[in-house]
Amino acid sequence: MDAATTISPAVLILLGPPGAGKGTQARMLEDKFGLVQLSTGDLLREAVAAGTEAGNAAKAVMEAGDLVSDEIVIAILRDRMAQPDCAKGVILDGFPRTTVQAEALDGLLSENNQKINAAISLEVEDAEMVIRISGRYTCAGCGEGYHDTFKQPVEDGKCDKCGHTEFKRRADDNAETVASRLTAYHAQTAPLITYYDGQGVLKCTNAMGKIEDIASDLESIVGNAMS
Ligand code: AP5
Q: pLDDT tens across 34-74, in order?
């Protein structure tokens, strides 16, 4: 394939408040389209667990439900996007979350001759977030997400994906922190909907329905955006 016909790796952004289903849907899209899910929340939690300098700086901020500094998050994202597996194309889950991060992403993509295929806004009512987040848990082995009511393993106590039998809940999934996270979302992240509309890449989808129905809507949005 010559340079003129080279297709650059896809870049998809999932926008949406905490608990909107970004991680749930990103994992399904990853499987369906062979893309790599990049969750800055997961990357930050790994840094906290590893006790890196960035992780130590982020820990208290995350526990309070505030946003970690743009400088730290952009550096983590930049390092992760330089890994070879990202050449398959990426789904950004939880990044960007501020206009500074969005501008940094534009700069990074432009350096790599890449562009954003679509920024998809998952639209959910605030009251629903609290219900979703308070019932969330994940497999301790592979990170597959579950919910006490809406998404339980087929076999009780055993992960559908990897068979692991231990599960965990996030420290920031409590009522007080969720309120702070929603406030941060409305103040700092929601303006990105206008930002990406201005770039002509915004797609909006109603994320109040069943997980499978939303996945089906997203598959067609992503399929069109990648064609
Ligand atoms: P992060 O980990 O990104 O958390 P978040 O944005 O708050 O999003 P969540 O992971 O909580 O929700 P989700 O939308 O992925 O929902 P999920 O699919 O799990 O960030 C955590 C913290 O890190 C931030 O507060 C901040 O401090 C820091 N941070 C991260 N990125 C940053 C950045 N770029 N800049 C600065 N700071 C940053 O679904 C939730 C639950 O609902 C699950 O149990 C799921 O099974 C269930 N569910 C999903 N869809 C449905 C449905 N349709 N119906 C019913 N249940 C559903």
A: 999 999 999 999 999 999 999 999 999 999 999 999 999 99
Q: Which residues are catalytic?
A: 22, 97, 136, 170, 181
**Residues 209, 215: Cα–Cα separation, whole Å:** 10
Cα–Cα distances in angstroms (integers) from residue 168 to residues 61, 161, 164, 176, 224, in the given order: 21, 15, 11, 19, 36
In the chain, the DSSP E strands lie at: 11-15, 36-39, 90-93, 118-123, 136-139, 145-147, 167-168, 202-206
Residue 1 Cα to ligand 1 midpoint, Å, equals 39
Q: Is the pTM of this model over 0.90?
A: yes
Could you tell me if the CB of 15 is within 6 A of ligand 1? no
Nearest CA to ligand 1 atom 12: 19
* Ligand 1 and 61: CB distance under 6 A: yes
Q: Whose CA is nearest to atom 44 of ligand 1?
A: 136
Read off the pLDDT of residues 154-171 as tens digits, 9 standing for 90 and up: 999 999 999 999 999 998
When pLDDT is averaged across residues 111-136 and rounded to a whole number, the result is 93
Confidence grade of residue 6 (pLDDT, cut at 50, 70, 90): low
> Which atom, in ligand 1's list, is nearest to the CA of 64?
27
